[in-house]
Design brief:
With about 230 residues, the protein is α+β, with helices and mostly antiparallel strands. Helices cover about 30% and strands about 25% of the residues. A hairpin with a 2-residue loop joins strand 1 and strand 2 (about 105-110). About 20% of the residues are buried.
Length: about 230
């Protein structure tokens, strides 16, 4: 999680987030060029005391500023459509996890393993807490996953609307009562990835964080063995 800047995206930890950042940079380049051209035209027009008669009822000019935005929208729309399909692409998952939102905590169930399920509550900071704990972001039970493994998450809610979100992975899915939403993702490196509920769900909406601990497959299997009951 990036803590040194609040203006940009967090460091990408999944292929989906990398694609989102590439599209953002592509879009910002186009927007900056448009802003510079329009600003130059406005300044040059307002500071020029001599009226340019060519610009009055100019058919070529009308044709130019009709066709040019069309091509600009194509350059923006084609990568956007490709990215939308990538975000909804369903891969063959290597494991499935059920995620349930509650007021106000998350519960996880590892469906491919016997009796591995737990609740995840926000950790309360105390004077004796560890110095490296993050306020409003740490939890008592982290969701542990192996990296470079395709994960399928089945997300729902037990009471009201929630939203399961990890910004550094580029994933966000609503948890709707009575409905299962599916999410596919993959982490590319080990680490801790933080998120929070992104749907206003009540008084303690700000106090139900999400933490994914991405580990090696061997450590994950050891963790599963120790947490099986």
């Amino acid at each position: 999680m990036s803590t040194y800047s609040s203006l940009g995206f967090q460091n990408a930890c999944s292929p989906l987030m990398e694609e989102l950042i590439f599209f953002h940079d592509h879009l910002m380049t186009i927007l900056i060029l448009i802003t510079m051209i329009i600003s130059y035209s406005m300044v040059s027009t307002t500071t020029n005391n001599i009226l340019n008669k060519i610009m009055l009822e100019s058919q070529p000019l009308e044709l130019f500023w009709t066709i040019t935005p069309t091509f600009i929208l194509i350059f923006i729309g084609m990568p956007s459509i490709r990215l939308l399909y990538l975000l909804d692409e369903v891969f063959n998952p290597m494991m499935t996890i059920k995620i349930m939102g509650h007021q106000w905590y998350w519960s996880y169930e590892y469906s491919d393993f016997l009796n591995v399920e737990f609740d995840s509550f926000m950790t309360q900071l105390t004077p004796s807490s560890e110095m490296n704990m993050l306020r409003l972001l740490d939890v008592d039970n982290r969701m542990t996953l192996p990296f470079n493994t395709q994960i399928r998450a089945l997300i729902s809610a037990a009471d009201v609307l929630h939203s399961w979100t990890i910004p550094s992975l580029g994933i966000k899915t609503d948890a709707v009562p009575g409905r299962l939403n599916q999410l596919n993702f993959l982490t590319t490196r080990p680490g801790l990835f933080y998120g929070q509920c992104s749907e206003i769900c009540g008084a303690n909406h700000s106090f139900m964080p999400i933490v994914i601990e991405s580990t090696s497959p061997s450590f994950f299997l050891t963790w599963i063995k120790n947490n099986s009951s």
